[in-house]
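During the reporting period the student researcher (J.K.) took over the structure-prediction task from the postdoctoral fellow and processed the backlog of single-chain submissions. One of the processed entries is reproduced below for the supervisory committee.
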Amino acid sequence: MKIRHFIYLIGFVAMSFGMLSCGASGDNPGYEYAPQMYNSVAYEPLTQIINEDEGSWLSSREDGKGEFFNSNINNPYRMNMREPVANTVPRTKDGSLPYRLKAFELEPAALIENPIEFSDKVLAEGKVLYTQYCATCHGAGGEGDGLAGQVVGGVANLKGGAYINLPEGHIFHVIMKGKGRMGAHGSQIPQERIWKIVHYVKQEIQKQ
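J.K. obtained the following structure tokens:
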């Protein structure tokens, strides 16, 4: 009996300690199990600390290296990100340069032609992208009757008025930079995909 009571007591103490260790208050963060699941190792892209002992006094890393060591051991140059070649500008896979026009530069934007060659495949991809990004406001048919558009109000009817005759470059620019209640989507949608949406709007919704 005494052994059984002793086992129960040990179990109770262990359970109590486990419950208490889950608590955190004030400057006490409590105990962390597998701390790197909460605090991942930061790989700064353009810095290289190759001394594996740097920050060892602070380290809780499972690999035993110092907290500040951040070189990529899987890269032959120990870099996390290679710097771009000097005096070069990145292009998209279709050869387009980064879009430089400002939000107010609608007139020069209207002169830009769609660099994506039209095809049935592009039209199908444009429909998918339009459904993902545009239909919630503009509606499936482009009439400004999407569920979000009904709440926001003032959403353009792409089939009506002056919207029918808008150049492709204008539509692209508005999606990229925003206009009025239309928010900028350039940080969310790559240029190539925006041009496919433009094809879908002009060819399928506006029948141009």
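The committee noted the following: The chain is about 35% helix and 0% strand.
J.K. will present the remaining backlog at the next meeting.
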